[in-house]
Amino acid sequence: MINLNVNGQQHQIEVDPRTPLLYVLRNELKLNAAKFGCGLGQCGACTVLIGSSAVFSCVTPVSVAAGRPVRTAEGLGTIENPGPVQRAFMEEQAAQCGYCIPGMMMRAQALLERNSSPSEAEIRTAMQPNLCRCGTHMRILRAIRRAARAVSASASAQGQ
Amino acid sequence: MIWRILLGLAVVLVLVFVGFYAWTWRGAMPALASAPSPSSFSSDDIKKGAQLAALGDCTTCHTAAGGKPYAGGAPVPTPFGTLYATNITPDPATGIGTWSEDAFRRAMREGVGRNGTHYYPAFPYDHFTLSDDSDIAAIYAFLMTREPVQQENKAPQLAFPLNWRFFAGVWQVLFLQQGPYRANTAKDAEWNRGAYLADGIGHCGACHTPRNWFGAENKGDLFGGGEAENWVAPALNASSPAPVPWTADQLFTYLRTGFADQHGLAAGPMQPVVANLKKMPDADVRAIAVYMASFEGPQDQSARDRQTKEALQFAEERAIKVGAMAGPATTGAGGSSNSNSDGAAIFAGACAPCHHEGGALPASRPVALGLSSVVNEPSPTNFVRIVLDGIHPAPGARGPIMPGFAGALTNQQIVALASYVRQQFSRQPAWQNIERALSSAGRQQTAAGGSQ
Predict the structure, then answer these.
(1) CB contact B409 to A (< 8 Å)
(2) How many whole angstroms separate alpha carbon B33 and alpha carbon B239?
(3) Percent of chain B with pLDDT over 90
(4) Which candidate, A16, B67, B308, B371, has a CA 20 to 30 Å from the CA of B42?
């Protein structure tokens, strides 16, 4: 039995501890945002957050996530009230086929949580592990810059 | 009486100091009126100099991250403090534009700058000194035809009294054996060529030979293993951690491509070395491989063959078989006694997708971990660094990728994983100091054994 906290909800799951976190999220919890791409931690489609770090959930055994907060794209916001990163990706129409986008959003979220006004070079370095096959990289980069502006604007509004 | 002794001691000390000062003192060499014209150098010399500068990894230290090539500024951490590589572009004011070839040769052979400054041995002139005049002239030609960059040098950050360059002069008197290289007549021409390149410009021993208290290489334990930029530079002599003794063929493939199937992938500070070696011709890389392999493993051929056979057999027995993932929580045939540990579960979920027998993809087939030098090292330092950061080709270059697990795994989990891997894939004793390797890799300890 493994205790898993996903998007603030506590789950008790009967599963082999070696099972990739990705399979548990998709098959047991029906959280289908994170995608299976390569299964080898090389493409980033499966990216989720554990604590404040973006990780490849396809090569993360579920046992290592026990007792640590896991977040998926479902946890960033709702359809009615999307989070700043989700909103920016929609406004920039950053998805083409969309398969890589939840992973992209989670890695962007991790970046903006530790650095709300990243430079262009910092964005590109941080996003380097995530691949997009359609080639919407320029829109993805624009979306992250837009999300950064929104996040830092709301941070400075709260600061006042 | 006591005052006389003290006075006598003081006089002796002053005399010793004056003697050393006079002994180590070097004058300035005349400055050129202006940097020599690039057209005064032959294109053959420049081309040869480019190869030798690549072999010497000049750019690794003499180019700062994001900086102009050869303009200096990159920090070189040492146990004594941090030094900064200097500007070696032909800028007359801040670089070496006013240096004659004679002054450059003195710097390479004796570690003394044009104006008489003694250099600290972070600049590996104790190796470069072996180079012959024509190779030094070629490197001079190459550097003098680079783009001049005006960039001031940064002062070394060394504690008193080491910040006094007089001590670099004393170091040279004590430890510098001046070249050029003298051939070992008992060995053939290829071995001698390899020795000349590896011990000279290539300065392999600067990382792979242990250093004494004064930071000088211990020549009695040549290639006995050292450190580089907080990585372990493995021993390359009889105490090499490699289960299969290196052969000249495996070394040649490793140096040429960055990967040898009986040893593993170049990582850490060895990556730029391999990248730079791409400029060297096959014959020179092979000569280096022949020379280095002559130190490796047992000298007796039948002992080598036996060790090789045993190591290959052990690695095959311990390899994680395809399908072990799907079965109950064991590690397949030949699993060690800890196959039900937390570390085994982490390995199965995080590592086995690629590190199972035969590898996941033909294009990025990882080394069998039972053969890996990293897993068989006495220290877990390199293992921990690779697990945390993964292995990535240089930006824009192609090559195998291993993802880092710094975010996914807590310190406690990495300790469990390291213990399992060591027990499963090595016959060496368990690692004792994994936590220390983690903290020296910059990981914070938390009460729960978590990360960050």
Answers:
(1) yes
(2) 52
(3) 72
(4) B67
Domains of chain B: 17-175 (no CATH), 189-293 (1.10.760), 320-440 (1.10.760.10)
Residues B317-349 pLDDT 10s: 999 886 655 444 444 444 445 667 899 999 999
Residue B5 burial (10 A CB sphere; 0-12, 13-18, 19+): exposed
Residue from the list A16, A64, A68 with its beta carbon closest to the beta carbon of B346? A64
Are the CB atoms for B356 and B320 separated by under 8 Å? yes
DSSP helix, strand, coil percent of chain B (3-state; round to 5): 45, 5, 50
What fold characterizes domain A2-73?
Ubiquitin-like (UB roll) (3.10.20)
Give the closest of A16, A50, A56 to B403, CB-based: A56
Q: For the segment B335-384, what is each residue's pLDDT rounded down to a tens digit?
A: 445 667 899 999 999 999 889 886 666 656 788 999 999 999 999 999 99
CA distance B150 to B90: 9
Rounded to the nearest 10 degrees, what angle do helices B282-293 and B189-199 cross at?
90
Whether chain B has a CB inside 8 Å of the CB on A69: the answer is no
A19–B452 C-beta distance less than 8 A? no
- The pLDDT, as a whole number, for residue B449 is 40
Chain A: residue whose CA lies nearest to B451: A51
Query: SS3 for B268?
Result: coil
* DSSP bridge partners of A3: A12
The DSSP output letter for B116 is S
2.40.30.10, 1.10.150.120, 1.10.287.3510, 1.10.10.10: CATH of A84-159: 1.10.150.120
Question: Would you place residue A148 in the very low, low, confident or very high pLDDT band (cuts 50, 70, 90)?
Answer: very high
φ, ψ at A65 (rounded to 5°): -90, -5
Reported confidence tier of residue B297, pLDDT bands at 50, 70, 90: confident
Residue type, B326: A
DSSP codes of every residue in A3-44: EEEETTEEEEE---TTSBHHHIIIIIS---SS--SSSSSSS-
| pLDDT value for A72 | 98
Residue A154: strand, helix, or coil: helix
Buried b (16+ CB within 10 A) or exposed e, A66-104: bebebbbbbbbeeeeeebbbbbbbeebebbeeebbbbbb
Tens of pLDDT, residue by residue over B412-430, are 999 999 999 999 999 999 9
